[in-house]
Design brief:
5-stranded mixed β-sheet, 6 helices, single chain, Nucleotidyltransferase, domain 5, alpha/beta
Amino acid sequence: MILAIDTTHEVGSIALVSGGMVLEEVMLDGGDGYGHLLFEALEKLGVAMHDVNGFAAACGPGTFTGVRIGLTAVKGLGEALGKPVYGVSNLEALLSFGRTSLVVPFYDARRGDVYARLLDGCEVVKPLEQVKLLVTGDVEWVSFEAVDGMPVTLAPRLIAGEVGRIAEARWLTGERPDPAALDANYVRRTDAELSWREA
């Protein structure tokens, strides 16, 4: 069984996954941050931590604070319990909601950009029109929100279940990553880095 967390957006979630099935998925309202919600939500799930085979977190891209909260939580749980910890890209999770073999997941990155995963697996942050120029052929676009004048397959906002399913598949192959090795997938530099470069 995998316990998965997504705190990378305003609407987060926590889920339990076993045998490729999402046993339970609970929404987390991150409007005021996730720090005070996360462990309360874990308690409500009512699962014994020693019954969990591993932990997973959406590792970005997303809000910098949100990404760090989720990663810190699962790293702490993994290290304390001696269990593997998996980081899963939000875009990889979003990819799984596509219905065809050529899927380009994307979502709002603010500042006029989107985060997107290209067909070769490369993740970028660019204006949507520029992303379209990088993609050739008839592809399926998948996102959380509709875009005027563009066919988009809509994915659910709650992605912790899918993060858990991807992590469980890795667990079944024997992958046992060290919690200390888990890192964020920001794609874009932090505001502090951008401001420093502009200065």
